[in-house]
Design goal:
- 69% of the residues lie in helices and 1% in strands.
- The protein is built from 13 helices and two strands.
- The chain starts with a helix and ends in an 11-residue tail after the last helix.
């Protein structure tokens, strides 16, 4: 079964939630709201919010309990893409088959649109009840998206000098730049389900494993990252080991963890059988 079919109920709730959360393009100030919606729609895989839902379900919670956390995490992910694409960073002109936000609206508006998505995310998180749970989720997401997480990884990636890249440094970059938000998605799902500390820790270890595997697979697909330091075969082994360890963490959760299992299978199917000859 395809990803979109397997998670159609999750995806429908995520799209509905994001549509309602984001201001309409007709609402003043119209330009910034149009740019914010442009950055969020149409949907990608929505991997991170789907993971929040799947983790919440696996931990014994209900999907509706996870909606604010899932949507807020996706808004933060989208903001990071808008800022990544700017000329000062990656200078990308296309994303998801169309012009990036700054090419469509200009750099200034794109910068503000990213800021708008970030602040809207925390506005949504503040609505989680009870307040004690909102505080836990806010702390997790702000830490994972900040200088000890995604931004820290971005800075390390930005400042590394050519020829200085080592495997430990690349692990640090990938764990922080990509992995921290994916780990946060798994933990937030557990927090919103009111899970025990044992289950919460299992979700964190699961998210940590698939977070690094996620970036490693992207490197295999792009011919970049780990392929600068390892052979393609070695990276594929690394990914499968990470996945196997992640699956072991959720196995005690039984049938409720089936959607998490499907996510790992989805990622494994993305692994290319061959990589560029120059690095393999």
């Amino acid at each position: 079964m395809k990803y979109e079919n397997h998670f159609k109920d999750y995806l429908r709730e995520i799209e509905k939630g994001l549509t309602e959360i984001l201001p309409l393009s007709s609402q003043q100030p119209c330009l910034i709201h149009e740019a914010m919606r442009y950055a969020v729609f149409p949907a990608g895989k929505r991997f991170r919010p789907v993971l929040v839902f799947a983790a919440c379900h696996a931990a014994g919670g209900k999907v509706e309990d996870a909606l604010e956390g899932a949507c807020a995490l996706e808004l933060i992910h989208c903001y990071s893409l808008v800022h990544d694409d700017l000329p000062a960073l990656d200078n990308d002109e296309m994303r998801r088959g169309r012009p990036t936000c700054h090419k469509q609206f200009g750099e200034a508006v794109a910068l503000l649109a990213g800021d708008g998505l970030l602040t809207l995310a925390f506005q949504i998180l503040a609505k989680i009840k009870p307040a004690s749970k909102a505080v836990q989720v806010l702390e997790e997401l702000s830490t994972s998206a900040g200088t000890y997480g995604m931004i820290g990884g971005q800075v390390a990636d930005l400042t590394i000098q050519k020829g200085e890249l080592t495997l430990p440094m690349l692990d640090y970059i990938n764990i922080h730049k990509t992995g921290k938000l994916i780990k946060a998605a798994a933990r937030i799902g557990a927090l919103l389900a009111g899970a025990s500390r044992d289950v919460e820790r299992r979700m964190m270890r699961f998210g940590e494993g698939i977070g690094l595997a996620f970036q490693s697979i992207d490197d295999l697909l792009d011919g970049d990252g780990y392929l600068k330091l390892m052979k393609g075969r070695e990276v594929r082994i690394k990914v499968r080991d990470l996945m196997a360890n992640a699956i072991r963490e959720i196995r005690p959760l039984g049938k409720r963890a089936e959607n998490l299992q499907f996510l790992t299978e989805f990622l494994l199917k993305r692994i290319p059988r061959e990589t560029h000859a120059k690095v393999d």
